[in-house]
Amino acid sequence: MTEAILLVGGQGTRLRPVTVNTPKPMVPAAGVPFLAHQIARAAAAGVTHIVMATCYLAEVFEPYFGDGSDFGITLEYVVEDEPLGTGGAIRNAAQRLTGGPDSPVLVFNGDILTGLDIAGLVESHRAADADVSLHLVRVEDPRAFGLVPTDADGRVLAFTEKPQTPEEIITDQINAGCYVFRRSVIDSIPAGRPVSVERETFPGLLASGAKLHGVTEDTYWLDLGKPESFVQASADLVRGVVSSPAVPGPRGEALVLPGAQVAEGAKLTGGTVVGAGARIEPGAVVQGSIVLDGAILGADTVVNASLIGAGASVGSRTVVTGAVIGDGAVVGADNELRAGVRVWCEAELPDAAVRFSSDR
Question: Boundaries of each Nucleotidyl transferase domain copy (predicted)?
């Protein structure tokens, strides 16, 4: 049996207004809450018991996932009254683990989409007899991440959180947000207070002589912290760029959920998802986007790499590119919303209120 802790307590502030009503891991990607993909992939890798560490909007998780039986696992929930950070959340959730002190415990973040070989990571941890094993990936620009250099045998040498100077960039390997802990190491994390696993736990373990093992795997990896990344992740799941047993339909250019209406002449491409009860009117062109349940796209709209919130409506001939429309928002006809624009939940934008000159 492999146990896991799934960290889903963050507020998802970088994804607002998408996360005003819904915690980030519960925002639909490829037709189901993003969390469903992580749970399904963990279950497929042999994980049998997951403890979900919740905080923000904690009440929404259990009604959807229940006891985990739909995924063939046992699922439990632990709620933080106050945010405890990554290390504190792991320590708090450990109260529900059942394994012994040397048992491996998989820990993963609720906002990372990856093609990681989870079973392989656990096996590598056992083979290395490590105290903690970390999934590492190589990125072109590592400045926004925690750097983790290793020696030729994979032993972790140091941790540098979000380097500030060129001299600090000593590797392109970054902490990919998935770990395997020896259970006794989790029990050594201070309880009842906020703890950063990246800034406190890992450096402290390294200083004490613990064996930290890095596993660098060349695989799909995406941090879903920003709207554009979340939309891309959904599109990649729909198109099969990265696999998930939880995608509710065949891989392809679009996923249209039951109850959605797509008019003849509308064009859906690039891994677009159309949610239940949503309506796409004639002449609309939607590429690589998420249209959530009950949303409406008017005739001849153009929507590209964007997220349209539940119950939102976009008027005829409006162009939406790289933008986020919040739940229940109303965007009038003949508007042009460009990359980075966010329309708040329930906001109303009149017809032709936002336009850009053609020479820009």
Answer: 4-237
